[in-house]
Design a protein that fits this description.
The chain is α+β, with helices and mostly antiparallel strands. The protein has 2 domains: 76 residues, ACT domain (Alpha-Beta Plaits), CATH 3.30.70; 74 residues, Alpha-Beta Plaits. It is built from 4 helices and 9 strands, in the order E-H-E-E-H-E-E-H-E-E-H-E-E.
Amino acid sequence: MTSKRILSVTVANKPGVLSRITGLFSRRNYNINSLNVGETENPEYSRMTIVVDADDRTLEQIKSQLDKLVEVIQITELDRTNIVDRDLALIRVNSSRSQRSEIIQIVDTFRARIVDLSTDTIMIEATGTPSKIEALIEILKDFGIIDIVRTGLVALNRGVVE
């Protein structure tokens, strides 16, 4: 049975590494649901958070293929029960003057914030778990969502990891 699996992959922070890794997924016909890459505490390395739909066998194949790449330093499957995960979304919503107070209340309830306001629209920044972002988007659909952009999942294990 396939499920969303989260891989934390530490790689050398060099040109072409992202291309090689995404190429590996493409050649093997694996779909990436979410991909986030950023420099770590050590500028020589980057951490990739990759979310894929995979069963155990497919995930082992992915990890095995990644492990063959010279630039890959470490591969860790993150356990959803022991991580802190976040997603960031910017959401532009239609907003007439009569709807503004209702939208502002919704934004406050979700601990999101308004980052831009025009005569006809409001742009909202929301940070939280993917399910929180999905719930906010679902409610905002009633007002007419114009645009959404999301960062994709970032995640780290809780506590001290050895």
